[in-house]
Amino acid sequence: MAKVHDAREGIPVEDGAVDGVFSHMFFTMHLNEKELSHIFHECLRALRSGGLNIYSVRNINDPHYGEGVHHGEDMWENSLKFVVHFFSLEKVERLAKGYDLQYTREFDDPSGPFVKKLYEVVLMKP
């Protein structure tokens, strides 16, 4: 069953109710690190032991990092008027608090209108 919900308000499932959480560039949205930390904690709460949080985010090696209008932290508004939050490896590690960081891998996303540099991150709930 699909449900529309603002993740900043928590995740409406029981503790340990899910095997995995997947998001492709969701955390790249205009969310500050405090909001991100809360969402990561909620994902951890919702996961069963051994469950995975797999996500991708734009990273600071991206050619668009630092371009456009600065919106605080590592967020920049691009020419399409979209605010992008870029991640460093240090930010990935900070947000992994409480998880076992399985790996981080950098890759190129060639989907238009331009190539983006992303991290694929896999976290496991102990």
Task: Summarize this entry quickly.
This protein has helices at residues 33-46, 89-95; strands spanning 18-24, 47-58, 69-70, 75-77, 83-85, 100-109, 116-124. It is of the alpha+beta class and 126 residues long. The longest helix is centred in the first third of the chain and has 14 residues, at 33-46.
**Number of DSSP strand runs:** 7
CATH class bucket? Alpha Beta
The sequence of SSEs as H and E is EHEEEEHEE
* Poorly predicted ranges: none
Percentage of residues in helical conformation = 10-25%
Name given to the CATH homologous superfamily:
Vaccinia Virus protein VP39
Indicate the structural class.
Answer: alpha+beta
What is the overall number of helices? 2
Give a short account of the largest sheet: 4 strands, mixed
Radius of gyration: 15 Å
Strand order of the largest sheet: 1-2-7-6
**From the 3D coordinates, which CATH architecture would you assign?**
3-Layer(aba) Sandwich
Number of domains: 1
Can you lay out the helices and strands and say which pair or pack?
Blueprint: E1 18-24, H1 33-46, E2 47-58, E3 69-70, E4 75-77, E5 83-85, H2 89-95, E6 100-109, E7 116-124
Parallel strand pairs: 1-2
Antiparallel strand pairs: 2-7, 3-4, 4-5, 6-7
Explained architecture:
This protein is of the alpha+beta class and 126 residues long. It has one domain (30-124): 3-Layer(aba) Sandwich (Rossmann fold), CATH 3.40.50. Helix content is 17%, strand content 37%. It has 2 helices and 7 strands; from the N terminus they run βαββββαββ. The strands form 2 sheets. It has a 4-stranded mixed sheet. The longest helix has 14 residues, at 33-46. It is globular. The relative contact order is 0.21.
